[in-house]
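Supplementary material to the annual report.
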Amino acid sequence: MEELKTRRPIPLSTNYAIAYAARDLDVDVVSAYPITPQTTVVEKVSEFVANGELDAAFIHVESEHSALSAAIAAALTGARAFTATASQGLALMHEMLHIASGLRAPVVMSVAMRSLSAPISIWNDQSDIFNARDAGWVIMFVHTAQEAYDTVIQAYRIAEDPSVLLPVMVAYDGYVMSHTTEPVVVEGRESVMKFAPKRQYPYRLDPDRPVTIGAIVPPEYYYEIKYQQVKAMEGALPKVDEVDREFGKAFGRSYGVMECYMCEGAEALIMANASYAATLKSLLPDAWKQGYKVGLLRLRLYRPFPLRQFVEYTSNVKSLLVVDRSISYGAPYQGPLANEIAGAKLKEDLGFNLISVVAGIGQRTMENEDFIALARLAWEGRTRKFPETVFYGVRE
Amino acid sequence: MYMELRFHGRGGQGAVTAATILARAALLEGKWAQAIPEFGAERRGAPVSVYARISDKPIEVHSNVIEPDIVVVLDYELLKVVDVTKGLKEGGTVILNSPVNKSPIPSKYKVYCVNATRIAKELNLVVSGWPTVNTAMVGALAKATGVIGLESAVKAIEEYFSNPTLGKLNAEAAARSYKELEPCSD
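Predicted assembly:
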């Protein structure tokens, strides 16, 4: 408690930082099922509920499908609902992901990104989130434990905003971040609730005023309802930016929707997210010393995609290397993000050479020299085309 | 100041907690710190590695430590199965939980020994038959390297344990180890 008064940073893993955010947001309902490497998020939340620091209904469900079902239903009654998952858990939720966004349920979910079976791997990559990208959720990637705490708080402001009403995922690398302990300033209930007060859900389920939500919709109307999701997602873009700026005013930390690091004078960029972005920040100065003038384009907001910022940062570079940590098997570029960037490049008529790199699958170790090698690839890409996706570090 | 550390222990000895307490102590001194467990072998008795970083400035890098400045070994028997000096920087420091004031580590490294197992047993810091040597090793680390002071190590330990009696005993383990640590060689 002394820590709260002084705003002294305390050592927390990203998982714990997220649990503290849920506590400070006074969430009403937590429904969760344990899955590595997410488990310690909801373990910590259950501790908060048990010791009275958080007055919430903690629902122990029998699967992730039920975890999200319960969270959706809770959100539709007007409760502030939270859940967390990873990997197979997110895959098992897939049906409910679309239902959450279709019903416009402002659920917030943290995802400790992990590879997908088979074969079984408990380790980090981003196959889970990229399989879920078209489910209509706002998706944000964070690169430190502090940013995770801050972004979960921002996420409720975004999700619950009457002009948005969309579910939000806050994603970070399993293990590499989820279990790494680092300093986090925990703001505490009072200031967090002042920033993100609970709102009345406009169309809530109420036994006294019964309504049906999610009934069958014939071809005459379904399309328009899905198009409303399109508009809601478009509207979320300025809202994310606005909430982040307000957060900066309240707490002194803000992140933007996309970050360009060491971009001044850079001729090439690497697009990366989460822990890779953090590690690249520490290594790019070495890359510059070796003559590779390469900047980092850190993807924070992924859905909706911040295209305006992307164009601004990439319009004057000669090459852009996109790191994917999942595979879109058989696609033109086999990195899903690279594929999208190819679309954005065409749409906006951008001149850079695109290099698609897949790396870190199943948490294949990337050492410092490997990140420098990526910088070198990005640098070479200024004058050389890479028509195929580079599967970095794979043994053939 | 920028220091990278690696802890070698066995699942159940508290290597992860040692690194977390180290991080907390460093934070108390206004430094920046990270504690990073290695993943996949969290079974009781299995060899585990944990990494840590301490710096004056915020640490951006999020990856395993490959070339540590300091290695802390919580279990002497691990020397038979793990190459604990792998990647250790030249002139780097090794701190051993050793039943004897002797070490097979090459003398090009600075090597220190302390009998943390005995200290843990003396204080009855035993969980399911396993002496928890981690807090004693934090005290030894403070003495050998000065990356954290004993005072902040003690405070971090007391803050870490929600049970104050346990906190005091573990802090005592660190203080005793701080006092007993000695240079050692073969």
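The mean pLDDT of chain B is 94.
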